[in-house]
Design a protein that fits this description.
heterodimer, A: alpha+beta, D-amino Acid Aminotransferase, Chain A, domain 1, Cathepsin D, subunit A, domain 1, 3 domains, seven-stranded antiparallel β-sheet, 23 strands, 28% helix
Chain lengths: 504, 213
């Protein structure tokens, strides 16, 4: 039934948080009306959070009546700002202005359309009339600072500000989602409008599954899993490390404790200068976050339901221990790639030609069979800034690449120009037939200067992957690591810059 | 003077209709846009049926009126979207657009059905009731995105039809009038729906991928 075995359907009541359970059993009990106002009223939220020194975007102006609209000094407005209805819901009525047209009183929105003073006045009047308010009643409009996108999230966002929704229950952050604006959503981070939702691992703050709304469906908003951003350039969405992650969790726990709402969605944006800022509190958080994380909220709620109230630090620790830690396996299973850090231990062995050459040096057949394969276990730098992989010539010689002794003079010589290096390389290239396992020579410009490097092949085992690498040989005596692995050889891996020695 | 022959079934059916609307929302997962709209559409269906006494003619006339109202509201909203008009002014315009289209449709429907609709008071009252739902339609357009708007319209239309069909179902009306204790069953159903916390059927489909994992 529904393409699911029966027991899965029964499981749904213990795993997935549905609207009925959320509204009747959670919100009614945990979000009493007297505290819901802190979420429904954005200005009241700001006041409450300011009391506890929790940062929100700066407030410029409040417009309470239509008469006040006529007294706005439009010339004094900053070039970029945001207009919001105080009691709006689902992002309705929020307009972000990115800049002002030169010499005109017109402001530009993320979809590159502009609004004149009259247009903005009309919008303010609509807000005051209650067009966007949660209960249809008259509302208040306010002007707020526009957040400047943090550099980590900027490449993934189409002209808008991404935000992070964290859901907290019983003071514990239980699930989180990154919401990215797209061209389809006209620069808003609204999933209903076509934005992208990306699940976040609570422990590490690294993104997991990404979803985007499918076409129309009578059942409700349905989502496809996607791997890359929708607008060019296409960038993978898994593995994004959210900046200030611990601070975000801390802010979420604090917001819940101070608002006294037992089940709360906290929307946070990261400003390039100010760091995480609370955009708004949500007493009725939506449930699509479960799809972005591919996990049920109810299962997590049940795990923390009976825990006693904790300090913020303890709450975060519980959240990380209970709900995190599997990100790497998830990302590996999604992408088929192993996750490695910036420095890894690798095992290097020579290729067959080198072993045969070493065996040839032994005088008897019996001794040939007893050739011990040189093996080195060393620390290698994972260098995505380098295109090719490289090995120190002394290590290579230790591994049996004796031919390198014939060209040892190359490792101490640098050239002033590429042309000079190429000219000097010609005689070596002419001698290639003399070598069994030096396959070529190459001119390389690096931090050491312009050098000529031999190219060899070696077998390197990194994690579960053993393969033959093409390495340039150089003098790495001044470097910390005798081997670097470059981009060309790292296609099977995802690099987590916060880690080292993930592979044992 | 307008006389509705069977007041009792209408009144007795009201809790039945609203229970069906509630069950559709909380158990199945399809939301209408407020109870009033679906109930009003159902009553309009009943009034039109009282004149035509044919289910299919009623369905044709009723559906045409509803589509005219929806179409008029959407077209008017689209036409005035770039104008600097106050919010309630917009709703008034949308009312005007929906009503004009509804009114313009009446002679067409009269010609098609062979019934002089203008002279049939009950049908006109039915049309009037359908017209009053424009207010909900207008605010629905402003408050919800286009997909959710479409979903709610479809659900409201279908439920209005289902509930209207119940109102005109003679066998059921006889049973209800003669066995009013059925309302106790309706009460029990209401208690069940009111305390229903299980996942909705549409949510099982929506979250299928999580359950499969």
């Amino acid at each position: 039934m529904f393409g699911l075995p029966f027991h899965h359907i029964f499981d749904s009541n213990t795993k997935i948080l549905g609207l009925n359970h959320r509204n009747r059993l959670i919100m009614r009990k945990l979000n009493p009306r007297k505290y819901k106002k802190y979420a429904d009223d954005k200005l009241l939220s700001k006041k409450l959070l300011a009391k506890y020194r929790i940062k929100t975007p700066e407030l410029f102006k409040i417009i309470r009546t239509k008469e006040q609209i006529e007294y706005i000094n439009w010339s004094s407005l900053p070039k970029s700002f945001v207009i919001k209805p105080n009691r709006g819901t689902h992002g309705a009525g929020i307009i972000v202005f990115y800049g002002q047209k030169k010499g005109k009183l017109e402001w530009i929105m993320p979809n590159m359309e502009s609004m004149s003073v009259n247009d903005i006045k009309q919008h303010l009047a609509d807000i005051i009339d209650g067009k966007f308010s949660i209960d249809g009643k008259a509302d208040v409009a306010f002007f707020e600072e526009r957040i400047v996108n943090h550099k980590t999230l900027k490449p993934f966002s189409y002209r808008g500000i991404p935000d992070i929704r964290v859901i907290a229950y019983n003071s514990i952050p239980i699930m989180a989602e990154l919401r990215l604006p797209t061209k389809e959503s006209k620069g808003t981070a609204n999933l209903h409008a076509g934005g992208i939702g990306v699940g976040i691992d609570i422990a590490s703050g690294v993104t997991t599954t990404a979803i985007h709304r499918k076409g129309f469906d009578m059942i409700g908003d349905q989502y496809n899993e996607i791997e890359e951003t929708l607008d060019s350039p296409k960038i993978p969405l898994q593995g994004i490390k959210i900046p200030f992650w611990d601070k975000i969790l801390e802010l979420t726990a604090k917001c819940q404790q101070h608002s006294k709402l037992g089940f709360l969605g906290v929307d946070i944006a990261i400003d390039a200068e100010k760091g995480p800022l609370i955009l708004e509190l949500n007493a009725r958080p939506g449930l699509a976050i479960q799809l972005a994380n591919q996990e049920g909220l109810l299962e997590r709620i049940n795990q923390v339901r009976r825990l006693k109230k904790k300090s913020v630090a303890k709450a975060i620790m519980i959240a990380k221990n209970l709900f995190g830690g599997e990100i790497e396996e998830q990302v590996e299973s999604i992408t088929g790639k192993e996750i490695i850090g910036l420095v890894e231990t690798v095992t290097i062995t020579p290729v067959d030609e080198v072993i045969e050459a070493l065996a040839a040096l032994k005088s008897s057949t019996k001794r040939k069979k007893q050739v011990k394969i040189p093996t080195e276990v060393i620390k290698a730098k994972i260098d995505t800034g380098a295109r090719k992989s490289s090995i120190d010539y002394r290590l290579a010689i230790q591994l049996g690449y004796k031919e390198l002794e014939k060209v040892q003079e190359l490792f101490d010589k640098t050239y002033k120009t590429s042309a000079a290096a190429h000219e000097a390389m010609e005689p070596y290239k002419a001698r290639l037939s003399e070598f069994d396992y030096i396959s070529s020579f190459i001119v390389v410009r690096s931090g050491n200067g312009i050098t000529i490097r031999p190219i060899i092949r070696a077998n390197i085992a990194l994690g579960g992957i053993k393969k033959t690498y093409i390495l340039t040989v150089s003098n790495r005596s001044a470097m910390i690591y005798p081997v670097i692995l470059g981009r060309k050889d790292l296609k099977e891996f995802l690099i987590d810059p916060s880690k080292t020695f993930t592979m044992r | 003077m307008v006389i509705i022959q069977d007041i009792a079934p209408i009144i007795l059916n009201l809790p039945v209709i609203v229970t069906i609307i509630a069950a559709t929302r909380y158990i199945i997962g399809f939301k209408t846009w407020r109870n009033y709209t679906a109930v009003t559409l159902a009553l309009a269906f009943y009034l039109i049926y009282e004149t035509t006494r044919s289910f299919w003619v009623t369905l044709f006339v009723w559906a045409s009126f509803v589509i005219a109202v929806i179409g008029g509201a959407i077209l008017t909203r689209y036409a005035i979207r770039k104008r600097n008009i106050n919010y309630y002014g917009r709703i008034a315009f949308i009312y005007l657009g929906g009503t004009v289209l509804l009114f313009a449709l009446v002679p067409v429907l009269s010609w098609v059905t062979g019934i002089p609709l203008f002279s049939k008071t009950m049908i006109m009252i039915g049309a009037f009731l359908i017209g009053t739902t424009i207010d909900d339609l207008a605010t629905l357009q402003f408050k919800k995105d286009s997909q959710e708007f479409l979903r709610r319209i479809v659900t409201t239309f279908v439920l209005g039809l289902v509930c209207g069909s119940i109102l005109v179902w003679e066998w059921w009306n006889n049973v209800l009038v003669n066995h009013q204790e059925i309302l106790i069953a309706v009460l029990l159903a209401n208690i069940l729906i009111a305390t229903w916390s299980n996942i909705r059927i549409t949510e099982i489909l929506r979250f299928k991928s999580i359950l499969k994992n």
